[in-house]
Design goal:
The protein is an alpha/beta fold. Helix content is about 25%, strand content about 30%. It has one domain: Rossmann fold. The structure holds guanosine-5'-monophosphate and magnesium ion (MG) (2 copies). It holds the Pfam family Pribosyltran.
Length: about 180
């Protein structure tokens, strides 16, 4: 897998520092509230697993999955819920946990859907943000790091379902997706 990585952007240790910091922020902001962490599968599972353990107040978790009918490296904007939440949202203070905010289409759609279910509050937490790429106006309250416009993999993030298990985050060599489909 390593030969497909152009450059390591965040080492395991650097990610751990970022996640700890966000965990502290959420613990501080949600003390005495009814925190529900909603992880968007599959990209945010690794982040979610680390983040929830860096939060030191009571928290519930749930998962949902969307599909975006996009090609490997871009979201189409047509988002569909593939797996819905198990929990009713009334009374919860929700933090949506995402891997990366890119065009904003996925999160803008999710925000609308979850908002319509009447939670007490709802905010976004994203590990990475590519502000340059935004097409829809969505902002995260908690952001791990802003990154340049490059396609990254690792720490949960995939290309074609691969590289999720890399413990660090790196830029994928464009040759990997430019030649995809040729085989
Ligand atoms: P958006 O709807 O904001 O355009 O796209 C968000 C989703 O696109 C992310 O949750 C992620 O699945 C995917 N995505 C966007 N940028 C990247 C990237 O650099 N690497 C990977 N692996 N996925 C990305
Ligand atoms: Mg995602
Ligand atoms: Mg993906």
């Amino acid at each position: 897998m390593m030969q497909d990585i152009e450059e390591v952007l965040f080492t395991e240790r650097q990610i751990a520092v970022i996640v700890e910091r966000i965990g502290k922020e959420i613990s501080r902001d949600y003390r005495g509230k009814n925190l529900l962490l909603v992880s968007v599968l599959k990209g945010s599972v690794v982040f979610m697993a680390d983040l929830m353990r860096s939060i030191d107040i009571p928290a519930r978790i749930d998962f949902m999955a969307t599909s975006s009918y996009g090609s490997g490296v871009k979201t189409s904007g047509v988002v569909k819920i593939v797996k819905d939440l198990d929990i009713e949202l009334e009374g919860y203070d929700i933090v949506i946990v995402e891997d990366i905010l890119d065009s904003g289409k996925t999160l803008s759609y999710l925000l609308d859907i979850l908002q319509s279910r009447g939670p007490r509050s709802i905010r976004i937490c994203t590990l990475f943000d590519k502000p340059e790429r935004r097409e829809v106006d969505v902002q995260a309250t908690y952001t791990g790091a802003e990154i340049p416009d490059a396609f990254i993999v690792g720490y949960g993030l995939d290309y074609d379902e691969k590289y999720r298990n890399l413990p660090f985050v790196g830029i994928l060599k464009p040759s990997v997706y430019e030649t995809a489909g040729a085989d």
